[in-house]
Amino acid sequence: MTVEQTLADLVAIDSVSSRSNAEIVSYLEARCSARGLECKRFHHDDHGLEKINLLAVTDDQSKTPFPTHRDSGGALQIELALVGHTDTVPYDPHWTEALKLTERDGKLYGRGACDTKAFIAAALTAVESIDIGKLTKPLALVLTADEEIGCLGAKRLAASRPFEAKYAIVGEPTSLQPMRAGKGYCLAQVTIRGREAHSAYPQLGASAIFRAARLVQRIESIAEDLKKDQHKDFDPPYTTLNVGLISGGSAKNIVPGECRFTLEWRTIPGQGPDHVLNLVRDAAADLQREDGDVVCEIDADRADESFETRAASELVQFLEQASGKTSGTVAFGTEAPGMIHLGAEAVVFGPGDIRVAHRTGEFVPVDQLNECVRILKHAIERFCL
Ligand SMILES: [Zn+2]
Questions:
Q1: What is the 348 CA–ligand 1 centroid distance (Å)?
Q2: What amino acid positions are annotated as catalytic residues?
Q3: pTM listed for this prediction
Q4: DSSP result, 70-125
Q5: Closest CA to 153 of 81, 51, 229, 65
Q6: How does the average pLDDT of the chain come out, rounded?
Q7: What is the pLDDT of residue 60?
């Protein structure tokens, strides 16, 4: 079976994050089992929606011990993990090619063709092209659920630790450039409460919007200060901050009693998710000290860590050499931090361009898809033979 045929099969299975991924997992499990890989399912039931992380390993660990630096506590030891998420973002129902992989001018179109079924198809094809009986170190395919809605599957694996890995290639469209570091992604909902009043008598109320504006201004100066802490491998080379949504008030002639905004920040490696949160909390506390009428609540609801794998890592070196591209960094969220929690040196790598992902008309170039098979095959031989 060619990598294109495999990709066509994967694209034909609708696996948007709002559905169960049981169907695509069954397909992948059958393919892996047929090649002698041992498959383990990790179930999660999300409000009656079955979600599965699938682990397919080349051999029983007990038969192929290898040295590890860490006390595993009984977790399965993997030398190289190829990680791909099985879910996709939703697609426009009018996009007729969404579930029917279509080739035009050397490009393969379909939902997930780029993000990230191309990598999964390449990984599967690479595994099928080698004699796994000859491998001396365990290789795993790690196929996750719910990446597109917050890397939930990878986070569940990181929390339950069913395995530890030494190296992980995390599939995402990077145009086959190895990406060895990524910014973190954090969110907080901020609510400012004042006191409503008739707007003809503002002295009787306390405008939540005026007070929120003061806090937003302070957040803007926090963003300025954050520019001093630089990580040169990123563009821009510092933690960025955004107030992307704001709402409040109930009528033009009412002094607003409440204002809410969403704060998002993307942290450079070396800076914990709490750093910005603490600065914003301090600014809010200052505001409350200065003004007895203001109540400020900050709910931090997401803190995806940044990650960085050292440039000298054997995996980084291997992928740079195999792809002919110097390693870079990504500003979007990936499952790499989850793999790092599982002990791995992780690199994000895959065919296709992230700039066409998530769009109607997403595609992967055929030549990159085939090149990815070649590189992953060499990676397996390099790390597991
Ligand atoms: Zn993706």
A1: 10
A2: 87, 147
A3: 0.89
A4: S--TTPEEEEEEEEEE--B----TT-TTTTS-EEETTEEESTTTTTTHHHHHHHHH
A5: 51
A6: 94
A7: 56
